[in-house]
Design brief:
single chain; 119 residues; alpha+beta; 2 domains; 4-stranded antiparallel β-sheet; 2 helices; 4 strands; rod-shaped
Length: 119
């Protein structure tokens, strides 16, 4: 048992140091997850780009249509609501507001434009 005697004091971490380091790691990880979630939520996804393209196409059709009414249509898994109203204090102008919703009724994209009304 000649090797069992230690010649110096062994340094080790106390339980308090371990707990403090774990708390710091959890806080840093939590902040990183919040940042990652916000980046994913705010980024332009393929679904949002597709919805914006459909809204542009629907807006072109509405601009060239002689009958502009408020309506709701379903195109490629998106529900597009078209709201048409006269532009305030300007005769001869109408405002078209398009909103795209996904299957979960969550708003994906919207587009608004003021155009001249058909004679």
């Amino acid at each position: 048992m000649a090797g069992s005697k230690l010649k110096g004091r062994v340094k080790s971490s106390s339980i308090l140091e371990v707990i403090v380091s774990m708390v710091i790691i959890v806080i840093v990880f939590g902040v990183a997850m919040m940042i990652y979630t916000n980046v994913l939520r705010l980024s332009l996804s393929a679904k949002k780009l597709k919805a914006q393209a459909l809204l542009q196409e629907t807006m072109l059709k509405a601009e060239h249509s002689t009958e502009n009414t408020s309506q709701s249509v379903t195109v490629a898994d998106f529900r597009i609501e078209q709201e048409v109203k006269p532009y305030p204090d300007m005769a001869g102008l109408i405002e078209i507001h398009l909103t795209a919703f996904d299957a979960n009724q969550q708003k994906i994209a919207e587009l608004q434009k003021v155009i001249t009304s058909a004679p």
